[in-house]
Design goal:
With 237 residues, the chain is an alpha/beta fold. The chain is built from 10 helices and 6 strands; from the N terminus they run E-H-H-H-H-H-E-H-E-H-H-E-H-E-E-H. It has a 6-stranded parallel sheet with strand order 3-2-1-4-5-6, with helices on both faces. Helix 2 packs antiparallel against helix 3 and helix 3 crosses helix 4.
């Protein structure tokens, strides 16, 4: 087969991050005595978080800084006297309990037993590990590779170096990365010289200069791509 290793992004690719985020925020605000916290501050939080994750991708901040800074900015904006570090730690504990999968994720992974599957995530290691272990995808991946452990985040090529070393991969032509982010997953893969598959369920327009090898709207469509690649190589052989 053409591909031997499939690198999956985790949040908003295999896992429904928005749903897990919403639940974790709700639980954490309740624990801090703010039952209307999500409805009052959701929009501000997501705007701040989006900016910071973008800065993380550009190497402007570290993941450890993001953990506290997003809540520090949120509470400062709304004049709230809340310990951002304590809140951030509690939020991550609650987030680690959220393991909602995207439609088709479990079926897809079960049908890819002939491939080595690994997760390549910009998230926090203990959080992502907890979510995987609680989900139906436990024992599916040969490794969980996070930016927290690697010291670099997608699209930085050094996280791919780290992943290839851990997975003992030598041939880039045998690797495919699947993810929802053009600026993180796809750009990182393109820059590293591996094939990419953009998961685009919302039919977003690609307004960047990043060109994925493939594009899918449903996760199960990946099987069709892999089958065609496999048949094509068999024909060549």
């Amino acid at each position: 087969m053409k591909y031997e290793v499939i690198l999956f992004d985790m949040d908003d690719t295999l896992f429904d991050f928005r749903l897990s985020e919403e639940e974790a925020l709700q639980k954490t605000f309740l624990e801090f005595g703010m039952p209307k916290g999500v409805s009052d501050y959701r929009r501000s939080y997501r705007e701040i978080s989006s900016i910071l994750w973008g800065e993380l991708e550009q190497g402007m901040i570290m993941l450890s800084e993001l953990k506290v800074e997003r809540f520090r900015r949120l509470f400062l904006k709304h004049g709230l006297e809340v310990d951002a570090k304590e809140f951030g730690n509690r939020y991550l504990e609650n987030l680690g309990k959220g393991f909602h999968l995207k439609p088709g994720a479990e079926k897809l992974c079960k049908n890819l037993s002939d491939y080595r599957l690994a997760v390549l995530s910009n998230g926090f290691h203990t959080v992502q590990d907890s979510r995987i272990k609680r989900s139906a995808l436990n024992n599916t991946f040969v490794d969980l590779i996070t930016s927290e452990r690697a010291g670099y985040q997608k699209p930085d090529s050094r996280i791919f170096d780290y992943a290839f070393s851990k997975l003992q991969i030598e041939d880039k032509d045998r690797v495919l990365i699947v993810g929802d982010s053009l600026t993180s997953d796809i750009k990182g893969g393109v820059n590293y010289g591996i094939d990419t598959c953009w998961f685009n369920p919302d039919h977003r327009k690609n307004c960047t200069d990043v060109l994925p090898t493939y594009e899918i709207q449903e996760l199960t469509d990946l099987q069709k791509i892999l089958s065609k690649s496999k048949c094509k190589e068999n024909f060549i052989d």
